[in-house]
Amino acid sequence: MAKVIAVSTNKGGVLKSSIVSNLAGVLSKEGKKVLIIDTDNQGNASISFGENPDNFELTLYDVLLEGIEPKKAIVNVHKNIDILPSNDDMGFFEFDVISQLDKFKKPLSLLKNAIQKIEKKYDYYLIDCPPNLGMILGNVLNISDEVIIPFQPEVYSMRSLQKILKQIDDFKEKHNPSLKVAGVVGTLVDSRTTLHSEVLQQCRKFCYEKNIKMLDTIIPKSVRFANAVAYEKKPATLVENRSNNLINSYYSLYEEVFSNGEKK
Ligand SMILES: Nc1ncnc2c1ncn2[C@@H]1O[C@H](COP(=O)(O)OP(=O)(O)O)[C@@H](O)[C@H]1O
Ligand SMILES: [Mg+2]
């Protein structure tokens, strides 16, 4: 069975989708077969591969709520990388499930049921998440082995980190005992900014005290590169090599989360 890694936190704009697509890029170069499961109605995982999510006739929504075969919705976007995409339809997921609870008796197991129907050809499922802690996240945590938590070091960041960690802890206790935090990773970091260094330090201390892994990898802020990548229609790790600082950070994230994981 594929290893399932989710990238999640209840904040937007902290590189969840970028981490998913760039890790998929690294994994594909390493010869691993990846399925990105995009659970966010913004569809950014597809957009980062140059696909317009509005053009998909069938999406994760149809798989979860209409019982459509996943393979009918899965698209190939690059060598070794497929996506089970989402678009605006996914925005109705929670409402549509809650209003039909007679039909959906186990609303947190919809994704679990769906992935059992996916062809067993992938090494990894990478799950991109919406920026909140609702029913979609519940479905994701139910099938995840590990969660990567992006942490942008700003004034209020510790608060949301504590919330997602609590959610994961509660979920682990009640539903998925094998769920693990793969690590907290600093994102959009400008190492010249004193505030960033201070908040990261605070986060390291917090994680150390709570026995949560904070990764050594830091994904730097690089506006120039983010702009350049927007024109390539591919994640940065499929465009440039490791000599670039940002690309190197995704490789070191891969090494910390995946290579260690395989050796265990
Ligand atoms: N290293 C980077 N430095 C600066 N901006 C970046 C970087 N990587 C990605 N971005 C931009 O930051 C924005 C938010 O990233 P995204 O991955 O969509 O966050 P999330 O999925 O958490 O909402 C996007 O517009 C993206 O292009
Ligand atoms: Mg996103």
Describe this structure in words.
The protein has a single domain, classed as 3-Layer(aba) Sandwich (Rossmann fold). Helix 1 packs across helix 11. It has helices spanning 16-29, 44-47, 60-66, 70-73, 93-98, 110-115, 135-143, 157-174, 194-210, 223-232, 245-263; strands spanning 3-7, 34-38, 75-78, 81-84, 124-128, 146-151, 180-189, 214-220. Helix content is 43%, strand content 17%. With 264 residues, it is an alpha/beta fold. It contains eleven helices and eight strands. The radius of gyration is 18 Å and the shape is globular. An eight-stranded mixed β-sheet has the order 3-4-2-5-1-6-7-8, sandwiched between helices.
Protein traits:
8-stranded mixed beta sheet, single chain, Rossmann fold, alpha/beta, binds adenosine-5'-diphosphate, 264 residues, binds magnesium ion, globular, 8 strands, 11 helices
